[in-house]
């Protein structure tokens, strides 16, 4: 029992450390990559950059005020669970921004934008994977989804677009295009990290008379586990068998060559999967 408690405590500590690392990465990207070039790349941090450019209010102050307001809205319109999820990040991120120096580490605006977007995307994806949130502009989409059934992604896209448009009036057209580029890069990085860095390939195979030979040959060549399903044809209504194989993406060519060498008429359906847990490879 004591060991179980220690493991749970260790997991909690590791989770908090992971969230802190993610928040630190966001803070670095904003303070050292975006803010020195006045690039407001969406979100609450983008709003803070716009406010600083116009009113000279520090990023941390604007972000703290905005996050507290979003936290209050969460308590009013959502629930305590959602509020608990965003509280830590909403408070800690402004503190990190206050502690991180606004230093231009990359003079080229485009390069700074790209690197900052990658760091930002990694940081935010770490936070999301650990079940937390940095608060900010993620709150309004949650409220709109609850009461008006508007998809979170759609409303968040509109909010980020409005923030990016603010660059035109505050910083200039060049910063606007850099902000749009930043949102795109960060989204790609987040999607890639959140759905897994080690992607696999799932292949479904059907053969009229050679499925067992295909299974055996693939197992001998790739040493990859497979599963056989009992299926029924949608047109013929006949009972059939289908082989499912999970393999590395670089093995796809070998898989195709092996299957077609045994049965040129085999039906093959392939797709990528984000993550695979356990099993044998």
From TrEMBL:
<feature type="transmembrane region" description="Helical">
    <location>
        <begin position="152"/>
        <end position="170"/>
    </location>
</feature>
<dbReference type="InterPro" id="IPR051461">
    <property type="entry name" value="UPF0750_membrane"/>
</dbReference>
<feature type="transmembrane region" description="Helical">
    <location>
        <begin position="110"/>
        <end position="131"/>
    </location>
</feature>
<keyword id="KW-0812">Transmembrane</keyword>
<feature type="domain" description="DUF2179">
    <location>
        <begin position="225"/>
        <end position="277"/>
    </location>
</feature>
<keyword id="KW-1133">Transmembrane helix</keyword>
<protein>
    <submittedName>
        <fullName>YitT family protein</fullName>
    </submittedName>
</protein>
<feature type="transmembrane region" description="Helical">
    <location>
        <begin position="85"/>
        <end position="104"/>
    </location>
</feature>
<dbReference type="InterPro" id="IPR019264">
    <property type="entry name" value="DUF2179"/>
</dbReference>
<dbReference type="Pfam" id="PF02588">
    <property type="entry name" value="YitT_membrane"/>
</dbReference>
<dbReference type="InterPro" id="IPR015867">
    <property type="entry name" value="N-reg_PII/ATP_PRibTrfase_C"/>
</dbReference>
<feature type="transmembrane region" description="Helical">
    <location>
        <begin position="176"/>
        <end position="193"/>
    </location>
</feature>
<keyword id="KW-0472">Membrane</keyword>
<keyword id="KW-1003">Cell membrane</keyword>
<feature type="transmembrane region" description="Helical">
    <location>
        <begin position="57"/>
        <end position="78"/>
    </location>
</feature>
<dbReference type="Pfam" id="PF10035">
    <property type="entry name" value="DUF2179"/>
</dbReference>
<dbReference type="GO" id="GO:0005886">
    <property type="term" value="C:plasma membrane"/>
</dbReference>
<dbReference type="InterPro" id="IPR003740">
    <property type="entry name" value="YitT"/>
</dbReference>
